[in-house]
Design a protein that fits this description.
- The chain is an all-alpha fold and 162 residues long.
- The chain has a single domain (4-158), classed as Ferritin, CATH 1.20.1260.
- Helix content is 78%, strand content 0%.
- The protein has five helices and no strands.
- The radius of gyration is 17 Å and the shape is elongated.
- The relative contact order is 0.16.
């Protein structure tokens, strides 16, 4: 049986994962609107991953005889100044998620919920990849700057993400 404090914290994180999906879909829509279909595609795939992360936590709650209680999802921003600003926010957001997962891990260890700590280890490892991918794209955008041809090359490359 899962402890109430951990159940509440996991429910909060499910909501945060779904917010991440909303955020990335909003960013994708913005990038579609400025004809950067590859960047938009990359973020749509990222949004699907965030939904899967939420379900992984949801399933853990159920497996531990807890209850998933779904709360309203905050509306994400709708506009950005540039592709660089989008990916600065993606990277910042992934760093925040890493901090959230770390806080969850701290709580599970404090409460001696080793089953949930083991489940969260997947997220700890996943966040290394998430931050790395976001930073790599941000650095590439900064390298090419506002040169349209270079930005379109990156756009073409990101369209290939599966």
């Amino acid at each position: 049986m899962i402890k109430k404090s951990i159940e509440e914290a996991l429910n909060k994180q499910v909501n945060r994962e779904y917010y991440s999906a909303y955020l990335y879909l909003s960013m994708s829509s913005y990038l579609d609107s400025i004809n950067l279909k590859g960047f938009a595609h990359w973020l749509r795939v990222q949004a699907r991953e965030e939904l899967a992360h939420g379900m992984k936590l949801y399933d853990h709650l159920i497996a531990m005889n807890g209850r998933a209680l779904l709360q309203p999802i905050e509306a994400p921003p709708e506009e950005w100044k540039s592709t660089e600003e989008v990916f600065e926010q993606v990277y910042d957001h992934e760093q925040k998620v890493t901090a959230m997962i770390s806080a969850l891990m701290d709580l599970t260890l404090e409460k001696k919920d080793y089953a949930t700590a083991a489940a969260l280890q997947w997220f700890v490892t996943e966040q290394i990849e998430e931050e790395g991918n976001a930073l790599a794209i941000l650095e590439q955008i900064k390298t090419v700057g506002d040169v349209p041809g270079h930005l379109f090359y990156l756009d073409h490359h990101l369209a290939k993400r599966e």
